[in-house]
Amino acid sequence: MVLGKVKSLTISFDCLSNRNIPVYSSGDIVSGRIGLEVTGEIRVKALKINARGHAKVRWSESRNAGSNTAYTQNYTEEVEYFNHKDVLVGHARDDDNSEEGLHTIHSGRHEYAFSFELPQIPLATSFEGKHGSVRYWVKAELHRPWLLPVKLKKEFTVFEHIDINTPSLLSPQAGTKEKTLCCWLCTSGPISLSAKIERKGYIPGESIQIFAEIENCSSRMVVPKATIYQTQAFYAKGKMKEVRQLVANLRGESLSSGKTETWNGKQLKIPPVSPSILDCSIIRVEYSLMVYVDIPGAVDLFLNLPLVIGTIPLHPFGTRTSSVSSQGSMDMNWLGLTLPERLEAPPSYAEVVTGENRQSGLAPVTAFDDFQRALQGPLFAYIQEFRFLPPPLYSEVSPPSSPTDHHFDQRTSKLQQSRLIKSQQGDKVFTLVFTLLFFLILSLCLSLSFFSLICVLG
């Protein structure tokens, strides 16, 4: 008897969105079918499936172990959410290649149903980042005697609901800052910045209305700007690796000395991005709106307003006036969009935060691979596979080596703080010495003038 061959092995899911993307949440039943097409009769030991979901991070750092000695330190961490196994045909034993207990599959196409329940725990949203990912998949394996198994893996999307209608995400975010520019002994007037947004939670596609007032009492020309940043944080072995990405930005009018600019709901649209990831112990994805004043030749004046990108839109009968361009439902046509062309690039994150008692010293790195998870569901969020044009701006942070539960607005670098304090102390000492020398020279000149006057009169 001539044995047949496996022509195709496929995996299909029953629960599909309107764009043929399998999307689930914790507690959902994932069901589908394994398709097997064979030419001729084959004998198999087993047809198995293995469904898994996990978050994983990995990065490497170079270390100096002394003179002319260096080594690479690897950091890895993994969180497993579930690991489901099932046998659809045959038996689970695969310890021998005997002819006993084999199952015969006849020529043609066959389908085998499978199903399993996602655990009733918070599952991190599917995500692809520079140093880590959150992935969910189903793998099918066809085992035959004396042959290598035929394997196929297909991923599906999971996202955790974030309802922006919760009170904490409906609360306004606001702040005020002021900065006085100094040049030697001369001090110009202050530059003041006040900014407010109507709430903390938004969904992709919404436009954030920014209310701000910028007053320039200095002698310099300044420019008000606003930027949305995404921060990816990866944790492993008590260390943290951070990547910041520019998402969207806008620019106001240049302000000359003595001028004031007011933003009455200036809009900054959120492009298709991943929802915030806040419940994963090794990967966090956070967002912030930075409203700042670009000051030539000085550290910029900025305000950081935290954002949460959610999945459940604002209700039409919300408690506040919405800034949503299309309110109440998710526009699934955005799945084909890419990020808008970048306007004038804002300063790097390192330039903005230097000297403001925040993390600094961010070095630019190359852009990582495209986001590759497509999230979607009825009235919920999505992430469409898209390319950043042009590439996003990245910078990396290597914070102090201590296991902490870092938060975005609380992370600071002791080394950078030390350098900053020393720099400030040095500036103060220099100013003091310069002032003393100035008064010493002035006193000497007055003494000489007085002595000359006495000589003339005498």
UniProtKB/TrEMBL annotation:
PANTHER family: ARRESTIN DOMAIN CONTAINING PROTEIN, ARRESTIN DOMAIN-CONTAINING PROTEIN 3
Annotated membrane topology: Peripheral membrane protein
Function text: Adapter protein that plays a role in regulating cell-surface expression of adrenergic receptors and probably also other G protein-coupled receptors. Plays a role in NEDD4-mediated ubiquitination and endocytosis af activated ADRB2 and subsequent ADRB2 degradation. May recruit NEDD4 to ADRB2. Alternatively, may function as adapter protein that does not play a major role in recruiting NEDD4 to ADRB2, but rather plays a role in a targeting ADRB2 to endosomes.
GO biological process, one term: protein transport
GO CC terms, sorted: early endosome; lysosome; plasma membrane
UniProt KW keywords: Cell membrane, Cytoplasm, Endosome, Lysosome, Membrane, Repeat, Transmembrane, Transmembrane helix
Designated name of the protein: Arrestin domain-containing protein 3
Domain of life: Eukaryota
Gene designation: LOC117005086
Alphabetical list of InterPro entries matching this protein: Arrestin-like_C, Arrestin-like_N, Arrestin_C-like, Arrestin_domain-protein, Ig_E-set
Subcellular location: Cell membrane; Cytoplasm; Early endosome; Lysosome
Keyword Phosphoprotein annotated: no
Primary location group: membrane
Family membership: Belongs to the arrestin family.
Transmembrane segments: 429-457
Species per Swiss-Prot/TrEMBL record: Catharus ustulatus (Russet-backed thrush)
Pfam annotation, one family: Arrestin_N
